[in-house]
Amino acid sequence: MRQKKNRSATMLEVCDHTGVEERVVRQFIREGRLIVSQFPNLGYPCESCGNMIQAKRICSSCQSELERELDSLDKPKKTERTVPTNQTTKQSQLKQYLQ
Ligand SMILES: [Zn+2]
Asked: What residue spans carry the Polar residues bias annotation (predicted)?
């Protein structure tokens, strides 16, 4: 039997009913310790654009944008044979961020 009421639970309701702080709930969702795919109202803002997400640190559109950026960093431009050191640093920072 489906419990429609629970599925439409908001973050506020969940915190109210469980007594768990909102930041802890968000942390659990992000760490995959709390599966919220069945609860469209539960999530946290993308760190990049603020869209509501339920996994990772950024939304899928921001992620594909970052991956595009990483792709272009991976392929040195023809006019620019050497990649500046600061770009390499930025790339590894982004890759770490996305892991
Ligand atoms: Zn985003």
From this structure: 82-99
Q: What are 14-31's pLDDT values in tens digits?
A: 899 889 999 988 988 888
Q: How far is the CA of 91 from the centre of ligand 1 (A)?
A: 19
Mean pLDDT estimate for the chain: 82
State how far the Cα of 99 lies from the Cα of 81, in Å rounded to an integer: 28
Question: Residue 24 Cα, ligand 1 centroid: separation in angstroms?
Answer: 21
